[in-house]
Amino acid sequence: MANKVALVTGAGQGIGQAIAERLAKDGFSVALVGRHLDKVQKVADEINGNGGKALAIKADVSDRDQVFAAVEETVEKFGDFNVIVNNAGLGPTTPIDTITPDDFEWVYKVNVGGVLWGTQAAHKAFKELGHGGKIINATSQAGVVGNPNLALYVGTKFAIRGITQTTARDLASEDITVNAFAPGIVKTPMMFDIAHEVGQNAGKSDEWGMSTFSDGIALGRLSEPEDVANAVAFLAGPDSNYVTGQTLIVDGGMQFQ
């Protein structure tokens, strides 16, 4: 990875922002992709202001053409492409009897579709550039064990683990590794929204909603986005070159595999 170029989806806030900032710190030129250009532009400006190299790109990961265009723009801007982090995702609270066909299509198109299209786009770029690369997908602690009231989200995160394992086998001969990271309960806007909805559904407080997810963390604290970014930095760097098809659980000791 002479030029070290990475693309991170869902990079406008939370875990995606922390990943982009960490990879920039590690010397990557980073493309930040998000549905809201103002959010990713703000993060890109901060990275550039701190001496890094960042590009903001507006794209909806559920749209295959937009994902391919984002990767192509990244290659054109930075001259190479080495790592994609398929991080963007949705996490609505969905008690089983409330799920509608529209809910199903919306969540699966973003969470699963975004990983499939990102994987395809990265593979195409790696082939055209004549080298291997790294594909890193966001699953979840909820993709390791089912969590209450999250049937749609959990289903997508289990699917991502299967896609990761399959594509790791399919692409290994091309010097492409494919791995996933599984955050636990992270202090992000999405997690606070989930906790609020769970509390509302039970007629209880936001704090009660969060406690339904955070009880049992061995390290005794919620995760910071930077905790997850540290793990992704390992998967993006050379120390993980002999690791593929794996899900790295970063949950402070909620699940043990």
TrEMBL record:
Gene3D superfamilies: NAD(P)-binding Rossmann-like Domain
Entry keywords, A to Z: NAD, Oxidoreductase
EC supergroup of this enzyme: oxidoreductase
InterPro entries for the chain: 23BDH, NAD(P)-bd_dom_sf, Sc_DH/Rdtase_CS, SDR_fam
UniProt key word NAD: yes
Entry function: Catalyzes the irreversible reduction of 2,3-butanediol to (S)-acetoin in the presence of NADH.
Biological process annotations from GO: acetoin catabolic process; bile acid metabolic process; fatty acid biosynthetic process
NCBIfam families to which the protein is assigned, alphabetical: 23BDH (TIGR02415), PRK07231.1 (NF005559), PRK08643.1 (NF006394)
Residues that bind NAD(+): Q13, G14, I15, D60, V61, N87, Y153, K157, P183, G184, I185, V186, K187, T188
Pfam families documented for this protein: adh_short
Active-site residues (renumbered): Y153 (proton acceptor)
Membership in a protein family: Belongs to the short-chain dehydrogenases/reductases (SDR) family.
Name of the featured protein: diacetyl reductase [(S)-acetoin forming]
One function term, GO molecular function aspect: quinone binding
Catalysed conversion reaction: (S)-acetoin + NAD(+) = diacetyl + NADH + H(+)
EC number, as in UniProt: 1.1.1.304
Keyword Plastid: no
